Amino acid sequence: MRTTIYKMLVGCYMVAALVLVAACNDKLDIQTRYPFTVETMPVPKKLKVNETAEIRCELKREGRWEDTRYTIRWFLFDGKGTLKTDDGTVLLPNDRYPLTQETFRLYYTSQSDEQSGFTVWVEDSDNQSVELEFDFNADNDKEDEDGTE
Question: Which of 31, 39, 87, 132 has a CA positioned 20 to 30 A from the CA of residue 99?
Fold first, then answer.
């Protein structure tokens, strides 16, 4: 009886050892790259010269990796205008700026009496990017002194 119990224990240890050896894998799979999107609130379609449009943005990440860094850049492809962040930083076209918050605001001030349009890219440290395009028509409607057109 003792030898039977001894043989069963030895058999269990051998099975456990085989399972542990087979389960070992030198390659530890840690996901560091997660997709993301940038959602915006609706913006006006028309802007007057020197009128500013607020663009409310929120970075939506599908996963979190602490070392992921995000940057923002923009390019004005039509018209004239400036783009600022909510802390007042004026963004120069095609320069990258660190994005430190997941919820942020951009302020576009039109300096064009015609159509203006620009593209904003939000990029992460894994070279993934989200492209946002904004188009504004000029609001050249003249108002009378009493506020009517």
Answer: 31
What DSSP character marks residue 141?
P
- Model confidence over 49-64: pLDDT tens digits? 999 999 999 999 988 8
Q: What's the sign of the alpha-carbon dihedral 59, 75, 137, 132? A: negative
Q: Is the pTM of this model over 0.85?
A: no
Angstrom distance (rounded) from CA 4 to CA 10: 10
Contacts of 91 (CB under 8 A, 6+ apart): 72, 73, 74, 82, 83, 84, 85, 97
Q: Which amino acid is at 123?
A: E
* Nearest-angstrom CA–CA distance, 36 and 63: 8
CB under 8 Å to 31, separation ≥6 — which residues? 63, 65
Q: Give the DSSP letter of residue 127.
A: S
Q: Are 135 and 46 in contact (CB under 8 A)?
A: no
